[in-house]
Amino acid sequence: MNSAVIASLLAAVPGLMLKTDPADLEHYGRDWTRRWTPAPLAIAFPESAQQVQAIVRWARVEGVAIVPSGGRTGLSGGAVAAHGELVLSLERMAKVLGFDAVDRTLTVQAGTPLEAVHNAAREHELAYPVDFASRGSCSIGGTIATNAGGIRVIRYGNTREWIAGLKVVTGAGDLLELNRSLIKNSSGYDLRHLFIGSEGTLGIVVEATLRLTAPSAPTNVMLLALPSFEALMDVFAILRSHLALEAFEFFTDRALAHVLAHGAQAPFAEVHPYYVVAEFEAADEAQEAAALAAFEACAETGLVSDAVLSSSDAQAAQLWRLREGITESLAAFRPYKNDVSVRVSAMPAFLAEAQALLAAGYPGFEVVWFGHIGDGNLHINVLTPEGMGETEFVARCSEVTDTLADILQRHGGSISAEHGIGLVKKPWLESTRSAEEIAVMRGIRQVLDPSGIMNPGKLFDSRPAA
């Protein structure tokens, strides 16, 4: 049966590269989550938007579901293919197509790695400011599909702010060119923003035109050791009042211990319970003096126990490694991840409730906290206890997430800040979106993917439960 379906695909899309080797099916059939067993039909590697269109039209006729695939660095199960879907990998569509010096835009195919975009922008003495630790692996299409944030949202915003135009293939097989890189465009609905954050459920991004900006002024990096969780927001307020912050990231002593076990260098002689990495403009002596003044203001009030100010690019990279290396250092423990957000102003009250919930809900579990505290985004990683089976572990964590979702709803927050809903967070979408909003989203999905073939089961089920 599968061989006949695959033969019909190759006939419909001449020259298409296709893989069916078991090792490839496993590799391309999952993302960084490991909860589902990959079982795709095959892996397709189109080289053009026209081939993507042909694949989608074939899939509609054959009734085959499609899972779009970029770098598969997602943490929500959004790129999982576990039920005979065709994985459509965009890794062969990774070209930089053009640069416009007047508009300051860079046009790339969707499979282009984020790091390649950074390098291409740098060649023109400009910058694409969206950035995060998986920059070498993730693709631009994937970052668009999840409206990725990262470490500099506090200064530059999410991916959405930097997308000038898109070319997408809808679930109906139509090729749409959205916004055409216009700065002003009031000619009806801006469909570009429907596809940003849509997790591949409406169609496939095949090309993106990205806005670029001037490179940041010279920056410096400061690592602060904090004596208590409660000090975080006070330290943030002081630094924000003194400095032009590019990033404000926090992590706990447990997170640091795992990164150090992976080979990072200890920043202090003593262990402290909480840490902050702050990056800020330091283009002149006045800004350097402001950084010292900010530290002194924190130290005088007992908010900070110790600090390191980088004196070179190499030392700055070492300090950033302490934050950016956390996810990789935890991978072997198969963590259950909560990626949540609230308004920055609501963070103190939310933190108090969430900390109490996790202490009560995970007795004896190791919980590792870190995140983009400056934009209201927390990553909560619960590590699998030794000897506990995955089914029991996920069930325990899901019970606590039920309560966490209730707390988020009371504080007007979101169960997914930047990783998307996918499969992992689907049960809690209603804590973030009203029934009316979800009904509208279902209607949009039905129009753009009338056959229900685009990444089915992700975000929400195609049809509401009876």
From TrEMBL:
GO MF terms held by the record: FAD binding; oxidoreductase activity
Gene Ontology BP terms: respiratory electron transport chain
Any Pfam family the entry gives: FAD-oxidase_C
Keyword Oxidoreductase: yes
Keywords: FAD, Flavoprotein, Oxidoreductase
Record-linked PROSITE patterns: FAD_PCMH
Tree of life domain: Bacteria
Coiled coil: none
Keyword Glycoprotein annotated: no
Swiss-Prot/TrEMBL cofactor(s): FAD
Residue span, FAD-binding PCMH-type domain: 36-215
PANTHER family for the chain: D-2-HYDROXYGLUTARATE DEHYDROGENASE, MITOCHONDRIAL
Family indicated by similarity: Belongs to the FAD-binding oxidoreductase/transferase type 4 family.
UniProt-recorded name of the protein: FAD-binding oxidoreductase
